[in-house]
């Protein structure tokens, strides 16, 4: 699940925007069409979640349930 441009209503006032995401295990067997139950799972069923911030710096922050990892883009 993903919100590709969270905070996009704030772009015109130069506030950082980002992408938020959540990863769940697929409930239906591989090779079959996905159904709503694949997406509509409880929060404690998440495998991974995180966000990316685009602003004066670009950062990726995520967790797999065992601590938090953060990375900052360094174009140099």
Describe the structure.
The protein has 1 helix and 5 strands. It is mainly β. The protein has a single domain, classed as Fructose-1,6-Bisphosphatase, Chain A, domain 1 (2-Layer Sandwich), CATH 3.30.540. A 5-stranded antiparallel sheet has the order 1-2-3-4-5, with no helix packed on it. Strand 3 and strand 4 (58-63) form a beta hairpin. It starts with a strand and ends with a strand. The model has no long low-confidence stretch (mean pLDDT 88).
The number of E-state strands comes to 5
Per the principal axes of the C-alpha atoms, what is the gross shape?
A: globular
Please tally the helical runs, counting DSSP H or I stretches of 4 or more residues. 1
CATH superfamily: Fructose-1,6-Bisphosphatase, subunit A, domain 1
Helical amount: under 10%
Q: Please tell me the CATH architecture by its name.
A: 2-Layer Sandwich
Distance between the termini: 32 Å
CATH topology: Fructose-1,6-Bisphosphatase, Chain A, domain 1
| H-E string | EEHEEE
Structural class: mainly beta
Output mean pLDDT. 88
CATH first level: which class?
A: Alpha Beta
Tally the structural domains: 1
Q: Strand fraction band?
A: 35-45%
Uncertain parts: none
Give the radius of gyration. 15 Å
Largest sheet: 5 strands, antiparallel
Strand order across the biggest sheet?
Answer: 1-2-3-4-5
């Amino acid at each position: 699940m993903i919100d590709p441009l969270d905070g996009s209503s704030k772009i015109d006032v130069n506030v950082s925007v980002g992408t938020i995401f959540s990863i769940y295990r697929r409930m239906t067997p591989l090779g079959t069409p996905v159904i709503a139950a694949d997406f509509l799972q409880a929060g404690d069923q998440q495998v991974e979640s995180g966000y990316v911030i685009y602003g004066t710096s670009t950062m990726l922050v995520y967790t797999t349930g065992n601590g938090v990892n953060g990375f900052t883009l360094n174009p140099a």
